[in-house]
UniProtKB/TrEMBL annotation:
Pfam families: FixO
Domain of life assignment: Bacteria
Domain Cytochrome c residues, every copy: 50-227
Source organism per UniProt: Thiohalospira halophila DSM 15071
SUPFAM superfamilies per UniProt: Cytochrome c
Gene Ontology MF terms: electron transfer activity; heme binding; metal ion binding
Keyword Glycoprotein belongs to the record: no
Gene3D superfamilies (alphabetical): 6.10.250.2250, Cytochrome c-like domain
Record's protein name: Cytochrome c oxidase cbb3-type subunit 2
Keywords: Heme, Iron, Membrane, Metal-binding, Transmembrane, Transmembrane helix
Keyword Metal-binding recorded: yes
Bilayer-crossing regions: 12-34
Amino acid sequence: MKHETIETNAGWLIILTLLVISIGGLVEIVPLYYIDETVEDVDGVRPYTPLELRGRDMYLREGCYTCHSQMIRPFRDEELRYGHYSLAAESKYDHPFQWGSKRTGPDLARVGGKYSNEWHVQHLKAPRSVVPESIMPDYPWLVENKLDYSQIEDRMRALKAVGVPYSETQQEYQANVEKFGKDVADKLHIPKADQNLVDEAQQGNYDGDNSDITEMDAIVAYLQVLGTMVDFSKYDEGEFVEYR
């Protein structure tokens, strides 16, 4: 059958298009029935602390996701630049996830610990002062605005409703102690959210000024945790291939 015949015959075009789509769909769907789990079994991944969670809110509010992705693809050039490719497990507590679809700026999946707190503060206040070629806008108000965390408990309860293991009862708290350890479980306990947020901000001193808790404290805390939860040195190369 000539290609011209297919293009000029609506019936053949519809039939063959559906056939191609069906084959493509089966190639993607059938393997899923032979995979027990698509989320990797790794240690270290935990929900965000109250301060990190508010920082993520700032990240979303300012539209950072429109220019920065948080998904390193399994290609050699990406791994050389950004590090180990992203795992599904690293985003399992994100609602919504921040994988992104555009990179006007670099991927941020593993930005945590790459720069100092001071660098992040300066970069957010005046990007071109540290990266001359940057086209990122300035965000000076982040260090000027006090952080509003009056609704942090409600925000954590909302995430708990969709499966994020924040605890409210003693039973839930004990389950988190067994799963994440006591130090992490304490930070995930909703009744202590306000005090946990204040303590983390003061101890971390993310914006360089302990006189108050600002939006800058929160967003830097969030950036500094990205990509730091999984210790990839514990896993052999190719460990996660079975999940792909």
